[in-house]
Amino acid sequence: MKLYGFAISNFYNIVKLGLLEKQFEFEEIPTPPSNQAELLAHSPMGKIPFFQHGNCFLSESQAILFYLELLKPNPRLYPVEPERGARAQQIHQFIDLYVDPEARVLLNAMRNPEQVDNAQIKTCCERLVYNIQALSQLVEFAPFIAGEKLSHADLAAFMTLNFAQSMMQRFSDQDPLARLSGVGAYMDMMEQRDSCQRVLADQQQALANWL
User: Which keywords describe this protein according to UniProt (predicted)?
Assistant: First the structure.
């Protein structure tokens, strides 16, 4: 198995967490997004991550995670009970659509400070706070984000909420997680997992090198 991308990317790290939690052996291939034909052949939009297993190539993090689940159902990351399974998917999709993009704007602003639009940053921070507060309607922290057991939604939540909080601290005194009741204990619990410690350390090192 080969995972292509780089450790700054939340989507890359979510897949990496899935591989580690499933205890797959895999190789990481540092790869930036691009419009090069070689990358487009495996990732139609030129984005990372993309994944190779034998002759199977997949892009899009949620598709890759689902493939890993089908390949090795245990330990399970996709709840089989209908409501739990749908809730985990809803939370994961919400985070991908409404939390990650705002944090990504802040990352780009941090990388290119000469292009920072203060009004845009203020609006972005406000949206991030609002969107994470809206997320509170979906989550349980019982103790995991969609119930009693770890799911793919936790992989997305841990990486993206940590990333959003870290990015926003550079531009605002507000904590975007402040109105998400129970999130502190949840993040502490997730940080105790070997997979999370490894991926977070790799991301922080990559981010320091990139900036």
Answer: Transferase
pLDDT tens digits for range 165-183? 999 998 999 999 999 999 9
pTM reported for the whole predicted model? 0.94
Tell me, yes or no, whether 208 lies in a domain.
Answer: no
- R_g (Cα) of the chain, nearest Å: 17
- Which H, E and C letters describe 92-130, residue by residue? HHHHHHHCHHHHHHHHHHHHCHHHCCHHHHHHHHHHHHH
Residues 109, 65 share a domain: no
pLDDT digits (tens, 9 = 90+) for 102-139: 999 998 888 887 777 889 899 999 999 999 999 999 99
Cis peptide before 176 (omega within 30 of 0): no
* Distance from C-alpha of 96 to C-alpha of 36, rounded to nearest angstrom: 25
Contact yes or no for 67/15 (Cβ under 8 A): no
User: Looking at residue 30, which CATH number applies to its domain?
Assistant: 3.40.30.10
Copy the structure tokens of residue 37.
């034909």
Q: How confident is the model at residue 66 (pLDDT cuts 50, 70, 90)?
A: very high
Which of 64, 61, 57 is closest to 24 using CA atoms? Answer: 64
Question: Which stretches within 22-117 are classed as H helix?
Answer: 37-40, 61-71, 82-98, 100-111
Contact yes or no for 11/49 (Cβ under 8 A): yes
